[in-house]
Amino acid sequence: MHINQNKMEINIKSLMLTNFRLAFLSFIILAFGINLKAQEELSRTYLKLSYTNNMDGTKSLSASLSYKEDKKFVQVQNQSLSFYSGVDLDELIQTVEVNAKGEATVVIPEGHEADTAGIYFYAAKFKGTDTLKRASKDISVKDATIELVFNQKSDGKTISVKAFEVDEEGEEVPLNEEVVNISVPTLFGDMLINKAPLEEGVCEIQFPSNLPGDSLGDLQIIAKIKDSEIYGNVVKIEKIPWGKPKLPQHLESTNAKGKLWTHNAPFWMVVTLVILMTGVWSHFGYVIYKIFRIKKIGAEQMK
Q1: What is this structure's pTM?
Q2: CATH superfamily membership of 45-142
């Protein structure tokens, strides 16, 4: 009898231990499932990173941060991005907050060295939030140099472009298959003038003679290798008196009537604006008329 009682106690303890293990295992599975679900509900973050090497000696990194909502990209705001450099991407350059467009830019300080092959390594990292997944983007680039020579002849103006990188032995290596864009700054951004591919590190680009400059006729010329997989963005800016001098406003109105960059709009633009505004105000007046008609009819029916 005593033996049976001991066996019964052992079975009860074994059953309780088994139940405890099952309960603990269920808790772990439930917690993991909740955490997995929470991870799945986080929005994917899209991080872009680019490198710009200006020929004035400054280098910078630019990043943009966004996520998708209803199949549309939305810029991330009020969040911080950290920029790193080094072969192991463990050297913090700076942590900055993105602007209203989800963009951030940092200037790379001097002292960041390339590896033995002349390659620089950079990264941008986003820690994530309660609703956005963390993200990181890294790039590797080489430095390149752009040189410009301006040629003015009787048959027109051209810009001779030379682009190269410097190898480990200090020798110039000409760039190939990279495209050089020539543009000038305007009120609405850089306006592309012409472009040409590099062959053995050189190309020649035609430049127009009828572009307006400042009061002295100076134009700011921007030569750029854009979004290269090897060199990133390489930018060279120079000023040269190749534009038409800007006239005072009262003379500009007389001599450049109807040009888009003057205060006197072209005739077709004036006509278009008059037609559009007439249509808008006509519809506005018709709506007001209908509102008063409805009010009048309602008052008559109340009598």
Answers
A1: 0.68
A2: Immunoglobulins (2.60.40.10)
